[in-house]
Predict the 3D structure of the following.
Amino acid sequence: MVSTEPTAEEVVAGPAVTGDLHGEMRRAARPFSRTTRVLAALVVLAAVFALGAWTHAAFGPASSPVPVRQVR
């Protein structure tokens, strides 16, 4: 099989999109898929949780020891 690349004239003479131009423009306007957005949201949520835990550990009240009853 011999595959030849189209000439510049053939590329310009052909349609830019074979199918639904509106659908192609919508897909081009969305650079990230839904899966990528969900994973990014989970990463941000985990980072916020870790930051909150670190902030509580650094600036939260120190845990006081439990008072021990003295046995007589």
